[in-house]
Design a protein that fits this description.
alpha/beta
Amino acid sequence: MSKQLDKRLVKFLSGLKKPLGRGHRELITASCVAVCILLLRSIGLFQSLELAALDQLFRLRPYDPPEERITIVAIDEASLRHVGTWPIPDNAIAQLLQKLKAFHPRAIGLDIYRDLPVEPGYENLVKAYKSMPNLIGIEQLANKKNASVLPPAVLNQLDQVGFNNVIYDIDGKIRRSLLYWHINNQAHESFALKLALLYLKSYGINPQSAANNSEYLQLGKAVFTRFQANDGGYVRADAKGYQILSNFPKLRCPNPSADSCSYRQVSMRDVLTDKIPKEWFSDRIVVIGSTAPSLQDFVFVPQSSDFMGAAKPIAGIELQAHFINELISAALDGRPLLQVWPKLWEYLWIFAWSYLGAVTAWRIRHPSRSLISIVICCLLLMLSVYLAFLFGWWIPILPSLLTFGTSVIWITRYLVYTQEELKRSKEFLQQVINTIPDPVFVKNEQHQWIVLNEAYCRFIGYPNQLLNEKSDYDFFPKHEADVFRQQDEMVFQSHQPQESEEEFTDAYGKTHLIATKRSFHKDAAGNYFLVGVIRDITKRKQREEQLKRTADELYRSNSELKRKEDHLRYLAYHDPLTGLSNRKFFMEQLHESLDWAANNNLLLGLLFIDLDGFKQVNDTLGHEIGDRLLVTVGQRLSNCLRGSDTVSRLGGDEFTVIVRAIPNVQVAAKVAEKILGTITEPIVLDEYTTNVSASIGISIYPFNSNDSENLIKQADTAMYRAKNLGKNRYEFA
């Protein structure tokens, strides 16, 4: 039954983690455990255990310095025999008070109920009451468990009374001190607080509201934080009145011969018989109360607990001394009071230890290392709580230990379950992939091989036993292993299949080209696997490389042929001297330009250009200079025209220009003027400076003609007319 429940819990945890992602396993586990523990804590299931843990902190703390400010006058069995009866007669109490008064103590506390006279000696006792302003008596306020016990009437009139009610926890121990109690809108002060205020008055310390919280009491250096019902390990505790968590001191007994004591303790009989030195009372707080076993005035406090043996109670008067000492030490010496964290901090603390337990169990999977880490964490937790307690902070240790341990157990059980599933998955995968002829490998999240088929082992050249639980870096060159790791990680992160081509060097140093298809798989326990199937594509790649080389050679051959074709076409349509288009190209361009002009209803200008004085340069300076002159003129013509215009050399010193898409004939005239100005600029060839001009004839489509031949003839005729009229000019047809 237990095993089935464990499996259900593990499956529930696994199912809960799926929607939130596998990377948050520790966080989800810690959160679930912390919430469960906090819920159980909120119903009080751990209250007794937490209080017991607090008791052990009190027991383990070091001893405080001896307390010399308080002396207990004990009404023990010997004192009862001395006075001869109980209750003690008023005359004996009056005599005791007078002797103590002579020692000049700062305050005297009488922890004995004296609501009724006990003759003989009542009148003497009343006189003693009235003569001692530093005397505090007691009363018991009524509550659900006890009836009220009135204080001495005289002391009540003098406002020298404090209540001695105490708060019991569920286990019968006292861990809290009650400072104030309001009944019927009337404030009552405790017996311990009354005495502490009398003592502190000589230091100028009076009760006042705390600066950071006006509802809290401040005495000297100490602010007394009011106890709340759910502070620390308490759950819905009785928080009536103004309570504080008591930080009980651990004092060495100044009288080693006494059976049980924490303060200097003297017998009432010895005081009455003048056997006690004055300095034991002078300038101190003296409290009078019962320590006789027959009077049964004993209580249990945290220090009463012990690992072995029965708990040891302390006398009620010693408890009051503890309360008084706590108030005075905090106010004068700054001794830490017992405080608790806000609930949010406690919850975060408990969750942090839950998360630490989950992380420790999940990430440190080696049994011995995990056990050592767990022990160290537990010791660290207990040490942290103990050190915080020494500084006055009560930090919950039991919920933290429970969340830490539960998270460890939960994660450990989950790991056991996943290991069982992993083993079954490996066995199943091994059976399946051995039937596949291609090399197949299976890796875990740590990129280690966990399952390999026989084909893979033959392909890599190593036996299965050597490869198992090893990684690529153990057998392949680093650059190859880096590629494999990168491809594996892509599949693990995306959960999508990937196919890639890689280099692969086997055990014999032979390099293969492989195609690997990787896919992601997950078993019932949530273990992640990567399954890879390999194909050797070395021969295919070699054939592809051969085909590629052949294709490259064909491409280069075709490119060479095209280059030659382009060169021949260039020679066929361009003048070899000037590089301008030749007559053939000019005619083709003219026909196309006329068609375009007709379709778009635009004008077209045709300019015929003949150089003036070229023959003289050619005859006097030579044909080489003449050719260079023609090249320069061709460049100037190209530079002064638009990109859409076409300039051609028809032969000799004759050039033509097709001016496309002109809005009117004046544009053609401006082009002619620009050409004339450009050509007439001096031309320097070697050491010779030459000057030539040009005669230009212009025909306009469609004004002069609609066909190319007539346009050419009219432009040619106009060019000759310009030459006859004086050269270096243009004429329209």
